[in-house]
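quick one before i forget lol
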Amino acid sequence: MTVGQIINIDGQVSAVELSEQSGKVSVSNSELEQATGWSLKPEGLCRDQVCVPVLNVTALSKDDQVDLSEFARLVQQNIVIDAQRKVVALGEQAQIRGTEMATLEAPDFTLPDIHGRQVSFSDYNRRKRLLLAWSSW
């Protein structure tokens, strides 16, 4: 096991003990709950009053270690795992993002402008906005 990080959708970073075995990255059930709010219980993966049934518990958990890829698949949450850097980033649940996309409203975000000032997309409400994105890859 090695110390790594889980970054959840709110940007909260949690230091956790990550285990990598056969290309699968896992974390203990207690650390999963601390980092994400989800925990494995007899009724399934639960967070607050919501529980997702787990039909194949052995694919998800072994020796109190929860496979993070299988966890993300079951709760329909986007995930990026960088095993080399020991970082796991969790994104929005697909259902939530799908609902937002159906409305054709862009989510609010904040980025620095060319002068370093923080500017939010919502700062320009009631105006026409053109959003351009570029990447070097």
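fyi The chain has a mean pLDDT of 86.
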